[in-house]
């Protein structure tokens, strides 16, 4: 019988519920269990696709084209398996489904109510699209006490009664603030948070308590006493200096043992944690160091570049190299003299220009790209980073002075323009300026044919075709891309119909590669992405040239 684990958070937001969930998933997986991870976000957006990166951080994209919360990125990075569209839902989507059913007359004249109709829709999500998983984990976004979250808590309470409490575990993540003057951890906020959970009818079975200092036995006993649980089920989650240390840390604290004990699965296999031990070993013993610049638009909130940052780190692990990232807000480059730009990049061995939306900062991205191209500094462009790289090349190699993207201005030679048609699984997708913005981009994994002998093909182990995840509305014009080939910028990856340039690379350059997709979504600490590995290797080679 499948076991369900529901993860809630209390006291404050940003406690790292997503990370904690991912680490628990990894520990259960290390015992040989089949684990599935899901996220329920109570907010009213249908999905996070339309939210500003400054508000919500990165939008993580699944293979099957869902725009999801960045926590799904943690899940994939820790479990290794791709998440599905059906692994993420929002309050908005739940209400939307209920209202659509009401319009279709599916409630047969009933008065549509929060309970049972909304809670039933949530329970339907909990059970949907499952196969033979041993454990399914559901992280509930927000903090206990949030108004939007109430019906989600009610639904999981009902669900545990439905499938049996012995098959459902409620894990609550809280914070124990440390008050230096008193020299102690404070348990009261945790007690209150559990009380609030109890008001909804949910008795947490395990408390995972984030804290900056170790939890004493007396503090543990006190929490257990006030919160109706055994002291062994109060688990300390000490702050870690690397997220990749968390699985081992939780294991040492006994978390996976206690979860299995709850489910009466004490005789489970011992976990194989070698994957995590290897990573921790590399992190503690870097052999090399390299610095790269990331020229972005949302550097003020690094959550906006979550997967990118992790993918860079993973490539560092693969080369036993500590990668220092110099975050540069692209618009700060605008108006700088060539000497000032050279100075900005003097201390880095590579430049990465990531994805983004809108006009702000694109000229700065192009200045960085021109610098990398002309000074033979390793360059890696992603999505918007590829589009601006092609515009920069069209301006300076083809002499099209007003080359731009119709995303930025209508008054230009459109080297990059709105994609109005493309093929997905044999079906034509059609878009126009009038299409709604939510969920209508070219999203998810698409095949890409690689040009034999190219740098891209080499990095992908001479594969003929690869699949990578996309999230874009605009596309490089193929005719211009072909004209640029004569100037040395070859198209090394195209969509199978030959219509969409997916990868371009510069000949006679140590590493100049730009891709229309987002390779960062598929990188893992134990399996770094080949393009990131190639880029970091090229940057590392620069250090020997110094
Ligand atoms: N704004 C560009 C587009 O929509 C690039 C998107 C991205 O970088 N993810 O095509």
Note down, in words, how this protein is organized:
With 546 residues, the chain is of the alpha/beta class. It folds into two domains: 3-279, Rossmann fold (3-Layer(aba) Sandwich), CATH 3.40.50.300; 286-543, Rossmann fold. It has 18 helices and 25 strands. The protein has a nine-stranded mixed beta sheet with strand order 13-12-14-15-25-24-23-20-21, sandwiched between helices. A seven-stranded parallel beta sheet has the order 5-2-6-1-7-10-11, with helices on both faces. Helix 8 (217-227) links the parallel strand 10 and strand 11. The protein binds glutamine (GLN). Glutamine (GLN) is lined by residues 355-357, 383-384, 407, 471-474.
Strand element count: 25
Any guess at the CATH architecture of the largest domain?
3-Layer(aba) Sandwich
Number of helices: 18
Ends distance: 60 Å
Q: Which whole number gives the mean pLDDT?
A: 95
Question: Which ligands are bound?
Answer: glutamine
Oligomer: single chain
CATH topology of the largest domain: Rossmann fold
**Superfamily (CATH H level) name of the largest domain:** P-loop containing nucleotide triphosphate hydrolases
- The value of Rg in angstroms is 25 Å
Broad structural category: alpha/beta
| Strands in their spatial order, largest beta sheet | 13-12-14-15-25-24-23-20-21
User: In one word, what is the shape?
Assistant: globular
| Uncertain stretches of 5 or more adjacent residues | none
């Amino acid at each position: 019988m499948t076991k369900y684990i529901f993860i809630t958070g209390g006291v404050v937001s940003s406690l790292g519920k997503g990370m904690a969930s991912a680490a628990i998933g990894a520990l259960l997986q290390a015992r040989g269990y089949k684990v599935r991870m899901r996220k329920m976000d109570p907010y009213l957006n249908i999905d996070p696709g339309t939210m500003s990166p400054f508000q919500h951080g990165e939008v993580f994209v699944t293979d099957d084209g869902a725009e999801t919360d960045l926590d799904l990125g943690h899940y994939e990075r820790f479990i290794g398996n791709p998440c599905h569209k059906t692994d993420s839902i929002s309050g908005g989507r739940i209400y939307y489904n209920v209202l659509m059913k009401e319009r279709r007359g599916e409630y047969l004249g009933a008065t549509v109510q929060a309970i049972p109709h909304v809670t039933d829709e949530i329970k339907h999500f909990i059970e949907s699209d499952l196969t033979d998983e041993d454990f399914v984990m559901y992280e509930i976004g927000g903090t206990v006490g949030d108004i939007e979250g109430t019906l989600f808590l009610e639904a999981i309470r009902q669900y545990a009664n439905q499938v049996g409490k012995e098959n459902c575990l409620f894990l609550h993540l809280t914070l124990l603030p440390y008050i230096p003057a008193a020299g102690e951890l404070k348990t009261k906020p945790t007690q209150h948070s559990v009380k609030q959970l109890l008001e909804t009818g949910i008795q947490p079975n395990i408390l995972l308590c984030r804290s900056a200092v170790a939890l004493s036995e007396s503090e543990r006993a006190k929490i257990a006493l006030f919160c109706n649980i055994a002291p062994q089920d109060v688990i300390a989650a000490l702050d870690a200096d690397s997220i990749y240390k968390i699985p081992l840390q939780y294991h040492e604290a006994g978390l996976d043992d206690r979860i299995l004990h709850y489910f009466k699965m004490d005789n489970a296999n011992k976990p194989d944690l070698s994957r995590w031990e290897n990573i921790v070993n590399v992190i503690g013993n870097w052999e090399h160091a390299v610095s790269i610049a990331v020229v972005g638009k949302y550097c003020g909130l690094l959550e906006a570049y979550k997967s990118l940052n992790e993918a860079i780190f993973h490539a560092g692990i693969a080369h036993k190299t500590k990668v220092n990232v110099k975050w540069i807000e692209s618009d700060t480059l605008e108006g700088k003299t060539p000497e000032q730009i050279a100075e900005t990049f003097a201390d880095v061995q590579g430049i990465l220009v990531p994805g983004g939306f809108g006009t702000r900062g694109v000229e700065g991205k192009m200045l960085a790209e021109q610098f990398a191209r002309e000074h033979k500094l390793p360059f890696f462009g992603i999505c918007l980073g590829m589009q601006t790289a092609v515009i920069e090349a069209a301006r300076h190699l083809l002499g099209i002075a007003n080359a731009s993207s119709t995303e930025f201005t209508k008054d230009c030679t459109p080297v990059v323009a709105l994609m109005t048609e493309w093929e997905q699984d044999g079906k034509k997708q059609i878009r126009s300026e009038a299409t709604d913005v939510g969920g209508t981009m070219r999203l998810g994994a698409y095949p890409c044919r690689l040009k034999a002998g190219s740098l891209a093909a080499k990095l992908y182990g001479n594969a003929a075709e690869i699949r990578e995840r996309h999230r874009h509305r605009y596309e490089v014009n193929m005719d211009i891309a072909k004209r640029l080939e004569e100037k040395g910028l070859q198209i090394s990856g195209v969509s199978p119909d030959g219509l969409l340039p997916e990868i371009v690379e510069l000949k006679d350059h140590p590493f100049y590669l730009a891709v229309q997709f987002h390779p960062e979504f598929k990188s893992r600490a134990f399996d770094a992405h080949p393009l990131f590995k190639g880029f970091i290797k090229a940057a590392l080679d620069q250090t020997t040239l110094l």
